[in-house]
Amino acid sequence: MDAFLRKLxxxxxxxxxxxxxxxxxEMAAIVSNSGGLGSIGVGSVDAATTRQMxxxxxxxxxxxxxxxxxxxxxxxxxxAREAAWLARLxxxxxxxxxxxxxxxxxxxxxFLTDDAKLAVLLAEPPAVVSFHFGLPARDRIEALRTAGxxxxxxxxxxxxxxxxxxxxxxxxxxxxxxxGGHRGMFDPGAxxxxxxxxxxxxxxxPKLDLPVIAAGGIMxxxxxxxxxxxxxxxxxLGTAFIGCPESTADAGYRTALFGPAAEHTVMxxxxxxxxxxxxxNRFTALGAGAEPAAVPDYPIAYDAAKHLHAAAKAARxxxxxxxxxxxxxxxxxxxxxxxxxxRLRSEMDKALSDQLTE
Length: 358
Hints:
There is one protein chain. The protein has 358 residues and is an alpha/beta fold. The chain has helices at residues 2-8, 25-33, 47-58, 79-95, 115-123, 138-146, 158-166, 197-207, 221-229, 239-242, 251-257, 282-287, 300-314, 337-357; strands at 14-16, 38-41, 65-70, 128-132, 150-155, 171-175, 181-182, 212-215, 234-237, 265-268, 276-279. The protein has two domains: 1-74 and 110-246, Aldolase class I (TIM Barrel); 75-107 and 250-335, no CATH class. It is built from 14 helices and eleven strands. The strands form two sheets. An eight-stranded parallel sheet has the order 1-9-8-6-5-4-3-2. Strands 7-11-10 form a three-stranded antiparallel sheet, with no helix packed on it. It is globular and about 60 Å long. It starts with a helix and ends with a helix.
């Protein structure tokens, strides 16, 4: 573990999950300044915004931080399917006095084809870059490695972990089925064994000659210590940071996270077009009866969801938002990011000490 932390340039085995659209440069910098690895997610923004976000983190810290990119396969537009999906959502728009958009767009460009974003990362290399939804081509990986960047990749199975190792990735994020947000499956159409964090971490640790980072359902320092006991080199926490004031979570999201809604999460593809774990809300209920083939490709479906959420939010209804959260959501705490990191450190140290004295 110590060698991996030295490689990353951090002292605390805690990685704040990137959480595109929720985490912020301010949050990432605070985590990094506190000894962990702060992260920003740039999968949902263009190259110019990526440059701005990287600069914003750098203006707040001289410590290492992680930049996460999306490596999903490009969407396959289907006008008939998209029109049918908008027609299905039309009554929900009407409920809030709005009309659905005339057409849907592929709102995010995948890193697989985004040369401009790659150029930003090479020109202003962060200490760490992480991949979600798959792996980029070998030449992109080699270019990032040549720039001195440590590379991480999400894996939801042993097969994906082995693919990351074969591609020359430095460490694998073992994303259990408990995790909030988008499932990092390379192929969302493939069978999913839905491995939990404990089982997946234990599968990957002895099979891969790489450090493994446990992710999914970890909300406190005791959970971090448990992940280390499984053989993980570090733990990645996302939902734990959503309630921090430095996140961009809106009032409805925060109310749901700290209320009864936190007790129920749902894995759904209806919001974005890819499986993602969300607090149960109006949109997850709407998508519960949808056949997978009816949902447009990611991120085209997300375009519809964002329009519907905006229409409902204007009427003070927050139940159509992408309220991503893991199964540990009931353990969320409202605290400044620096305070949360301090608590995590204290709880982890106590749990590790207790393990030694047992």
